[in-house]
Amino acid sequence: MGDEEEFFAAYDAALRRWPVAVRGVDVPSAYGTTRVHVCGPEDGAPLVPLPGGGTTSMVWFANIEDLARTHRVYAVDLMGDIGRSVHDGAPLRGAEDLMAWLDEVYEALGLDEAQLCGHSYGAQIALRYALHAPHRVDRLALLDPTGCFAPLSPRYLLRAAPLLLRRTAERERAFRRWETGGDPEDPGWEEFLDSTASARRSKVVVMRRPGAAELRACTVTTLVLLAGRSRAHDVRRVAVAARRLLPNVAVATVPDASHHSVPTERPAGLNRLLREFLG
Protein backbone atom coordinates (compact mmCIF):
# COMPACT_ATOMS: atom_id res chain seq x y z
CA MET A 1 0.00 0.00 0.00
CA GLY A 2 1.38 3.42 -0.98
CA ASP A 3 1.64 6.39 1.36
CA GLU A 4 -1.45 8.08 -0.09
CA GLU A 5 -3.44 4.84 0.16
CA GLU A 6 -2.34 4.47 3.80
CA PHE A 7 -3.60 7.96 4.55
CA PHE A 8 -7.01 7.32 3.03
CA ALA A 9 -7.23 3.95 4.82
CA ALA A 10 -6.56 5.75 8.11
CA TYR A 11 -9.09 8.45 7.16
CA ASP A 12 -11.79 5.84 6.46
CA ALA A 13 -10.95 4.01 9.71
CA ALA A 14 -11.30 7.28 11.64
CA LEU A 15 -14.68 7.95 10.06
CA ARG A 16 -15.94 4.47 10.95
CA ARG A 17 -15.36 5.35 14.60
CA TRP A 18 -17.84 8.24 14.52
CA PRO A 19 -20.63 7.28 16.95
CA VAL A 20 -23.39 8.68 14.70
CA ALA A 21 -24.88 7.78 11.35
CA VAL A 22 -23.05 9.86 8.75
CA ARG A 23 -23.36 10.34 5.00
CA GLY A 24 -20.54 11.63 2.82
CA VAL A 25 -21.41 13.92 -0.09
CA ASP A 26 -19.15 15.47 -2.72
CA VAL A 27 -20.05 19.08 -3.47
CA PRO A 28 -18.88 20.56 -6.80
CA SER A 29 -17.44 24.06 -7.06
CA ALA A 30 -15.26 26.08 -9.41
CA TYR A 31 -12.28 25.05 -7.27
CA GLY A 32 -12.92 21.31 -7.19
CA THR A 33 -14.99 18.82 -5.25
CA THR A 34 -15.54 19.33 -1.51
CA ARG A 35 -16.16 16.33 0.72
CA VAL A 36 -18.81 17.05 3.34
CA HIS A 37 -19.86 14.58 6.05
CA VAL A 38 -23.51 15.13 6.96
CA CYS A 39 -25.13 13.90 10.18
CA GLY A 40 -27.69 14.88 12.79
CA PRO A 41 -31.45 15.49 12.57
CA GLU A 42 -32.67 16.84 9.24
CA ASP A 43 -34.62 19.57 11.03
CA GLY A 44 -31.70 20.53 13.27
CA ALA A 45 -30.07 23.95 13.06
CA PRO A 46 -27.35 23.75 10.38
CA LEU A 47 -23.77 23.80 11.68
CA VAL A 48 -20.62 23.92 9.51
CA PRO A 49 -17.41 23.04 11.42
CA LEU A 50 -14.09 23.83 9.72
CA PRO A 51 -11.05 21.83 10.90
CA GLY A 52 -7.56 23.05 11.63
CA GLY A 53 -4.91 22.64 8.97
CA GLY A 54 -3.73 19.09 8.39
CA THR A 55 -6.46 17.40 10.43
CA THR A 56 -9.48 17.13 8.07
CA SER A 57 -13.08 16.78 9.22
CA MET A 58 -11.99 13.67 11.13
CA VAL A 59 -10.83 15.96 13.95
CA TRP A 60 -14.43 16.23 15.22
CA PHE A 61 -14.65 12.58 16.32
CA ALA A 62 -14.83 13.54 20.01
CA ASN A 63 -17.39 16.31 19.47
CA ILE A 64 -19.69 14.99 16.77
CA GLU A 65 -22.02 12.95 18.98
CA ASP A 66 -22.87 15.96 21.14
CA LEU A 67 -23.12 18.37 18.22
CA ALA A 68 -25.29 16.06 16.11
CA ARG A 69 -27.90 15.63 18.86
CA THR A 70 -29.45 18.99 18.05
CA HIS A 71 -27.73 20.17 14.85
CA ARG A 72 -27.60 19.13 11.24
CA VAL A 73 -23.81 19.01 10.94
CA TYR A 74 -21.97 19.55 7.65
CA ALA A 75 -18.34 18.66 8.44
CA VAL A 76 -16.12 19.92 5.64
CA ASP A 77 -12.67 18.89 4.40
CA LEU A 78 -10.94 22.17 3.53
CA MET A 79 -10.22 22.91 -0.11
CA GLY A 80 -6.47 22.87 -0.76
CA ASP A 81 -5.63 20.95 2.41
CA ILE A 82 -5.40 17.21 3.01
CA GLY A 83 -8.52 15.05 3.02
CA ARG A 84 -11.08 13.90 0.49
CA SER A 85 -11.75 17.31 -1.01
CA VAL A 86 -10.15 17.44 -4.46
CA HIS A 87 -8.62 20.73 -5.60
CA ASP A 88 -8.63 20.23 -9.36
CA GLY A 89 -10.30 23.45 -10.46
CA ALA A 90 -9.51 27.15 -10.17
CA PRO A 91 -6.39 28.08 -8.18
CA LEU A 92 -6.62 29.30 -4.59
CA ARG A 93 -4.73 32.59 -4.72
CA GLY A 94 -5.86 34.13 -1.46
CA ALA A 95 -8.62 34.70 1.07
CA GLU A 96 -11.05 35.89 -1.63
CA ASP A 97 -10.91 32.50 -3.32
CA LEU A 98 -11.54 30.68 -0.03
CA MET A 99 -14.57 32.91 0.56
CA ALA A 100 -15.87 32.21 -2.95
CA TRP A 101 -15.31 28.47 -2.38
CA LEU A 102 -17.28 28.54 0.89
CA ASP A 103 -20.04 30.56 -0.79
CA GLU A 104 -20.38 27.76 -3.33
CA VAL A 105 -20.40 25.09 -0.61
CA TYR A 106 -23.22 26.90 1.23
CA GLU A 107 -25.19 27.25 -2.00
CA ALA A 108 -24.73 23.62 -3.05
CA LEU A 109 -25.88 22.44 0.38
CA GLY A 110 -28.90 24.76 0.29
CA LEU A 111 -27.74 26.75 3.32
CA ASP A 112 -29.02 30.30 3.37
CA GLU A 113 -27.61 30.63 6.89
CA ALA A 114 -25.71 28.32 9.25
CA GLN A 115 -23.81 28.39 12.48
CA LEU A 116 -20.08 28.29 11.78
CA CYS A 117 -17.34 26.79 13.93
CA GLY A 118 -13.62 26.54 13.26
CA HIS A 119 -10.43 25.39 14.96
CA SER A 120 -7.03 27.01 14.41
CA TYR A 121 -6.64 27.68 10.65
CA GLY A 122 -10.29 26.68 10.23
CA ALA A 123 -11.19 29.39 12.76
CA GLN A 124 -9.31 31.92 10.66
CA ILE A 125 -11.36 30.93 7.61
CA ALA A 126 -14.57 30.98 9.68
CA LEU A 127 -13.90 34.49 11.00
CA ARG A 128 -13.04 35.72 7.51
CA TYR A 129 -16.32 34.24 6.24
CA ALA A 130 -18.32 35.96 8.99
CA LEU A 131 -16.78 39.26 7.88
CA HIS A 132 -17.38 38.43 4.21
CA ALA A 133 -20.98 37.15 4.48
CA PRO A 134 -22.43 37.99 7.92
CA HIS A 135 -25.97 37.31 6.68
CA ARG A 136 -24.99 33.66 6.21
CA VAL A 137 -23.48 33.13 9.68
CA ASP A 138 -25.99 32.76 12.50
CA ARG A 139 -23.39 32.26 15.22
CA LEU A 140 -19.61 31.92 15.14
CA ALA A 141 -17.48 29.71 17.43
CA LEU A 142 -13.69 30.02 17.20
CA LEU A 143 -11.57 27.32 18.89
CA ASP A 144 -8.10 28.61 19.80
CA PRO A 145 -8.11 30.72 16.62
CA THR A 146 -4.80 31.48 14.94
CA GLY A 147 -4.20 34.45 12.67
CA CYS A 148 -7.30 36.24 13.98
CA PHE A 149 -6.40 38.43 16.96
CA ALA A 150 -2.67 37.97 17.62
CA PRO A 151 0.38 36.59 15.83
CA LEU A 152 1.67 33.07 16.18
CA SER A 153 4.37 32.58 18.80
CA PRO A 154 7.91 32.80 17.34
CA ARG A 155 8.80 29.67 19.32
CA TYR A 156 5.85 27.83 17.77
CA LEU A 157 6.93 28.89 14.28
CA LEU A 158 10.51 27.79 14.99
CA ARG A 159 9.33 24.37 16.14
CA ALA A 160 7.14 24.03 13.04
CA ALA A 161 9.94 24.99 10.63
CA PRO A 162 11.28 21.44 10.07
CA LEU A 163 7.84 20.41 8.77
CA LEU A 164 8.05 23.06 6.08
CA LEU A 165 11.41 21.68 4.92
CA ARG A 166 10.37 18.03 4.90
CA ARG A 167 7.22 16.63 6.44
CA THR A 168 7.61 13.20 8.06
CA ALA A 169 5.56 11.28 10.62
CA GLU A 170 8.45 11.53 13.08
CA ARG A 171 8.68 15.31 12.73
CA GLU A 172 4.91 15.66 12.96
CA ARG A 173 4.87 13.61 16.15
CA ALA A 174 7.77 15.53 17.72
CA PHE A 175 6.01 18.83 17.03
CA ARG A 176 2.73 17.54 18.52
CA ARG A 177 4.51 16.21 21.61
CA TRP A 178 6.15 19.56 22.18
CA GLU A 179 2.91 21.53 21.81
CA THR A 180 0.59 19.17 23.69
CA GLY A 181 3.07 17.86 26.26
CA GLY A 182 2.71 14.23 25.15
CA ASP A 183 1.16 11.84 22.66
CA PRO A 184 -2.60 11.92 21.95
CA GLU A 185 -4.64 10.03 24.51
CA ASP A 186 -6.50 8.21 21.75
CA PRO A 187 -4.24 5.68 19.91
CA GLY A 188 -6.55 5.67 16.88
CA TRP A 189 -6.25 9.43 16.54
CA GLU A 190 -2.47 9.21 16.85
CA GLU A 191 -2.40 6.64 14.05
CA PHE A 192 -4.46 8.95 11.86
CA LEU A 193 -2.21 11.94 12.59
CA ASP A 194 0.88 9.88 11.73
CA SER A 195 -0.68 9.04 8.36
CA THR A 196 -1.21 12.71 7.46
CA ALA A 197 2.50 13.35 6.89
CA SER A 198 2.28 11.65 3.50
CA ALA A 199 -1.08 13.13 2.47
CA ARG A 200 -1.20 15.44 -0.52
CA ARG A 201 -1.87 19.16 -0.14
CA SER A 202 -2.37 21.54 -3.02
CA LYS A 203 -2.57 25.05 -1.58
CA VAL A 204 -2.99 26.16 2.03
CA VAL A 205 -3.77 29.86 1.74
CA VAL A 206 -1.83 32.26 3.96
CA MET A 207 -4.15 35.07 5.06
CA ARG A 208 -3.41 38.34 6.75
CA ARG A 209 -4.91 39.02 10.15
CA PRO A 210 -8.15 41.08 9.95
CA GLY A 211 -7.69 44.74 10.74
CA ALA A 212 -9.14 46.38 13.83
CA ALA A 213 -11.77 48.26 11.83
CA GLU A 214 -12.93 45.03 10.13
CA LEU A 215 -13.30 43.26 13.46
CA ARG A 216 -15.14 46.17 15.10
CA ALA A 217 -17.65 46.06 12.25
CA CYS A 218 -18.40 42.35 12.80
CA THR A 219 -22.12 41.85 13.43
CA VAL A 220 -22.05 38.11 14.21
CA THR A 221 -22.43 36.84 17.77
CA THR A 222 -19.13 35.10 18.52
CA LEU A 223 -17.65 32.72 21.06
CA VAL A 224 -13.85 32.53 21.34
CA LEU A 225 -12.80 29.34 23.14
CA LEU A 226 -9.13 29.34 24.05
CA ALA A 227 -6.84 26.47 24.98
CA GLY A 228 -5.32 27.29 28.36
CA ARG A 229 -2.06 25.47 27.57
CA SER A 230 -1.76 26.64 23.96
CA ARG A 231 1.79 27.18 22.75
CA ALA A 232 0.63 28.52 19.39
CA HIS A 233 0.17 32.07 20.67
CA ASP A 234 -0.17 34.19 23.80
CA VAL A 235 -3.62 33.16 25.05
CA ARG A 236 -4.02 36.23 27.25
CA ARG A 237 -3.19 38.51 24.34
CA VAL A 238 -5.73 36.75 22.13
CA ALA A 239 -8.42 37.07 24.82
CA VAL A 240 -7.75 40.79 25.39
CA ALA A 241 -7.77 41.55 21.66
CA ALA A 242 -10.96 39.57 21.00
CA ARG A 243 -12.80 41.36 23.81
CA ARG A 244 -11.51 44.75 22.68
CA LEU A 245 -12.22 44.35 18.97
CA LEU A 246 -15.35 42.24 18.55
CA PRO A 247 -18.62 44.02 19.47
CA ASN A 248 -20.58 40.91 20.49
CA VAL A 249 -18.18 38.31 21.85
CA ALA A 250 -17.85 35.93 24.77
CA VAL A 251 -14.42 34.54 25.63
CA ALA A 252 -13.86 31.35 27.59
CA THR A 253 -10.90 29.08 28.29
CA VAL A 254 -10.59 25.30 28.35
CA PRO A 255 -7.81 25.26 30.96
CA ASP A 256 -6.31 21.79 30.44
CA ALA A 257 -6.27 21.87 26.62
CA SER A 258 -3.40 22.62 24.26
CA HIS A 259 -3.79 24.18 20.83
CA HIS A 260 -3.56 20.89 18.97
CA SER A 261 -5.63 18.87 21.43
CA VAL A 262 -8.50 21.26 22.18
CA PRO A 263 -11.10 19.50 19.97
CA THR A 264 -10.00 15.95 20.73
CA GLU A 265 -8.92 15.41 24.34
CA ARG A 266 -11.09 15.67 27.45
CA PRO A 267 -13.79 17.23 25.27
CA ALA A 268 -16.64 17.27 27.82
CA GLY A 269 -15.97 20.88 28.86
CA LEU A 270 -15.56 22.08 25.29
CA ASN A 271 -18.71 20.31 24.12
CA ARG A 272 -20.73 21.78 26.99
CA LEU A 273 -19.57 25.32 26.17
CA LEU A 274 -20.34 24.81 22.46
CA ARG A 275 -23.82 23.42 23.18
CA GLU A 276 -24.64 26.32 25.51
CA PHE A 277 -23.51 28.86 22.91
CA LEU A 278 -24.94 27.26 19.78
CA GLY A 279 -28.24 26.40 21.41
Compute the CA-based radius of gyration: 17 Å
Percentage of residues assigned to helices: 25-40%
What is the N-to-C succession of helices and strands? Answer: HEEEHEHEHEHHHHEHEH
Note poorly predicted spans.
none
Shape: globular
Number of continuous helical runs: 10
Q: β content, as a range?
A: 15-25%
In angstroms, what separates the terminal alpha carbons? Answer: 44 Å
Average pLDDT confidence is: 95
| Strand order, largest beta sheet | 1-2-4-3-5-6-7-8
> Describe the biggest sheet?
8 strands, mixed
Structural class: alpha/beta
Strand segment tally: 8
Explain the overall architecture:
This protein is α/β, with parallel strands linked by helices and 279 residues long. The chain has 10 helices and 8 strands. The chain has helices spanning 3-16, 64-70, 95-109, 121-132, 154-165, 169-180, 187-195, 212-216, 235-245, 268-278; strands at residues 23-29, 32-39, 45-50, 71-76, 114-119, 137-143, 221-227, 249-254. The protein has an 8-stranded mixed beta sheet, sandwiched between helices. Helix 9 links the parallel strand 7 and strand 8 (249-254). The model has no long low-confidence stretch (mean pLDDT 95).
Concise description?
By secondary structure, this protein is α/β, with parallel strands linked by helices.
Could you list some keywords that capture this structure?
279 residues, alpha/beta, eight-stranded mixed sheet, 10 helices, 8 strands, 39% helix, 19% strand
